[in-house]
Amino acid sequence: MTTPIPAPRLTVGICSTGRVGTALGEALAAAGHRVVAAHAPSPASRERAERRLPSARLGTVDDVVAAAELVLLAVPDTELPTVIDQVAAALRPGQIVAHTAGAHGVDILDPIAQRGGMVLAIHPAMTFVGGTEDTERLSSSCFGITTADPFGDAVAAALVLELGGTPVRIDEAQRTLYHAALAHGANNLIALITDAVTALQAAIDGPHHLAAQATVDGGATGLPEQILGPLVRASLENVLNLGPSALTGPVARGDRATVQRHRGALEELPDPGVALGYRVLSARAAVQAGAPADLLDSIEVK
């Protein structure tokens, strides 16, 4: 009488085995579900599925729907409507269909709901690079979930909890804003750091290009990345813990002269986008820090 009742185990099919679908398939298998089928339309996805999802039989979208109780749609947003129509045409009432698109809720799955499927939107708030580390990171990730009813909500939350993640309920009408916030914080961070690396490499090279390939410890990572790494990691931790009060540097001090010198140096780089990015983000930082008006004037972002 005291033995816990195990959660139901599902047969899982994945369309398709890109970075996200493969990682979620691995995580679901580790949680005890059976990944029985996968659609792998490219050579890279087939190789990935054969290596990391060995129990999955490769086939068409129809094959995946026929084999699985839970069908996971992990395809690019541009392909999602076409795949949804394919799944709806082959669906059996009662099957669970979940997509992983951040910017969509469950309205896009209406053709499946009309055929009697349970529809879920389950988006991992994580970046994926294509290795097994993607799967490991899911256990520390939040997942944005949107469903059509309380029963679907319970199923989506249970699946996320089984993966070790944290379910966060996002209203259907707010999915685009939710996804925009994540893209702004994660994808645009990559653009920011890439620009910083470009500027720092130019500073290290100097006029004589003596240190273009130098590293601190002889490793493969370039010197700009090794210099920026500890600073950027500390800044990220600080802002997550402290909010805008973590801001330091010339903008936080209202140091107009230094900001102007920064602008001048960055505008000498071949890529004008680096200086533009600095001006835009410095203006945002100045507003958040309550910097004086003359500092904002010196940034001059139109």
UniProtKB/TrEMBL annotation:
InterPro entries, alphabetized: 6-PGluconate_DH-like_C_sf (IPR008927), DUF2520 (IPR018931), NAD(P)-bd_dom_sf (IPR036291), OxRdtase/DH_put_Rossmann_dom (IPR019665), TM1727-like_C_sf (IPR037108)
Descriptive protein name: DUF2520 domain-containing protein
Short name of one Pfam family: Rossmann-like
Gene3D superfamilies registered for this protein in UniProt: NAD(P)-binding Rossmann-like Domain, ProC-like, C-terminal domain
Top-rank taxon, per record: Bacteria
The species this protein was found in: Gordonia alkaliphila
Domain (Putative oxidoreductase/dehydrogenase Rossmann-like) ranges: 5-124
Residue stretches making up the DUF2520 domain: 142-284
